[in-house]
Amino acid sequence: MEKHIMGENGISYTLGEDGLYYPNLYLPEETEYPIGKYGMLRKTYLQEHRKGLYLELVLAGKLNKHLHQINEECNQMMDRLVEQMQERQGVTEELKMQDQMAWVGRMNNIRACAEEVILKKIVYR
């Protein structure tokens, strides 16, 4: 038996130790992107709840790019939402100088609310 053969479908096969031929399949090369907090949350969500989409992205070599885009989109939306909520709630630098603890409390609340929106609308969709 030959060690390597070419199938009729154009796929090459290699003879295994058990006497069966296995296709020589490789995942496409994927560009490495930095993936932050929201990208990692998205990856976990896809693995646990959207397995088909996760496998599709892995097999197409697009998972890292997708996770990077999600992370960038979330960070940009977080910045916008925090800024808008600060304006609407009157959280200013003046408040920060007058009462730091009140400012910190309001900012923590704003960030938590903004993150909740981001997770619901982008990461877990």
Most strands sheet:
3 strands, antiparallel
Shape: rod-shaped
Order of helices and strands: EEEHHHHH
So how many helices? Answer: 5
The total strand number stands at 3
| Percent of residues in helices | 55-70%
Write down the overall mean pLDDT. Answer: 94
Radius of gyration: 24 Å
**Structural class of the helices, strands and pairings?**
mainly alpha
Q: Which strand order does the major sheet show?
A: 1-2-3
- Uncertain ranges: none
Strand content: 5-15%
State the separation between the terminal residues, measured CA to CA.
51 Å
How would you portray this structure in words?
The protein is mainly α and 125 residues long. 64% of the residues lie in helices and 8% in strands. The protein has five helices and three strands, in the order E-E-E-H-H-H-H-H. It has helices at 37-49, 51-60, 63-89, 93-98, 100-123, and strands at residues 4-6, 12-15, 21-23. A three-stranded antiparallel β-sheet has the order 1-2-3, with no helix packed on it. A hairpin with a 5-residue loop joins strand 2 and strand 3. Helix 1 packs across helix 2, helix 1 (37-49) packs across helix 3 and helix 3 (63-89) runs antiparallel to helix 5. The chain is rod-shaped. The N and C termini lie far apart (51 Å). The mean pLDDT is 94.
Short description:
By secondary structure, the protein is mainly alpha-helical. It is built from 5 helices and 3 strands.
